[in-house]
Amino acid sequence: MAESSVARERVRVPAVMPFRRRESFLSTVEAALFRCLREVAGARYVVLAKVGLNDVFYIARPNEHVHYFNRLFRKSIDFLLCSAESLTPAVGVQLVRVGRDGILRGADQFLQDLFEAANLPLVAVPPAEHYADVELARQIETALSRPARAAADASDVPMDAIPMCPVCGKMMVLRIQKGGRAKGRLYYGCIDNPACPGRVAA
Question: How many CB atoms lie within 10 A of CB 151?
């Protein structure tokens, strides 16, 4: 009894929680780029900021590619332009700092490879205090006009996409029930388990 009491004490929520609101959602550079993107987008696109990669992409045959989950989990694209009518993603925009050797950082190179693999245009923009509408519009139109690479082989596309967690909306992973009456039965569990209890029958 004493032990369970101690356990409850450990997880007790403090009377005053330590969370505080940030003064600004976007940095100065991000805000400058966002304002320029809104001018370029006009009525054609909706500009979304800091969009989770998990909300844009999913992993084909996820149970064979579990090691790829961390590449998307808790990572985001700076800006995503979506069709104003359908909200379908049209082009990503990422602030990128290129080293003196002209080589992209690992995270930025992964984004380039990810967007290319999914046939979604990506525009890399260097940080600046001000952006020119005309130049940014040209970069976006150039990216949109590039021909898409050949579609992936049909065998790479799952017959049914992996479900999203009904509790938090994140990706789910196929798991095996380890105990109880349903021992050995397959089910989808949230990738954020045990923090999130979401599960769906397989």
Answer: 9
Q: Would you state the pLDDT for residue 148?
A: 67
The whole-model pTM stands at 0.70
- In the numeric block, the tokens 């304002």 are attached to 35
Contact 78, 95 (CB under 8 A): yes
CA distance 74 to 53: 8
Q: What is the sign of the dihedral through the CA atoms of 50, 51, 54 and 56? A: negative
Which of 97, 89, 96 minimizes the C-alpha distance to 123? 96
Where would I find the beta strands (DSSP E) of 128-171? none
Strands (E), 53-165: 76-83, 89-95, 122-125
Q: What single DSSP character describes residue 67?
A: G
- The angle subtended at Cα 163 by Cα 191 and Cα 112, nearest 5°, is 70
CB atoms near residue 39 (< 10 Å): 12
Task: Enter the tokens of residue 182.
Answer: 């349903």
Tokens 């388990």 locate to 193
Question: 88-103: per-residue pLDDT in tens?
Answer: 999 999 999 876 666 6
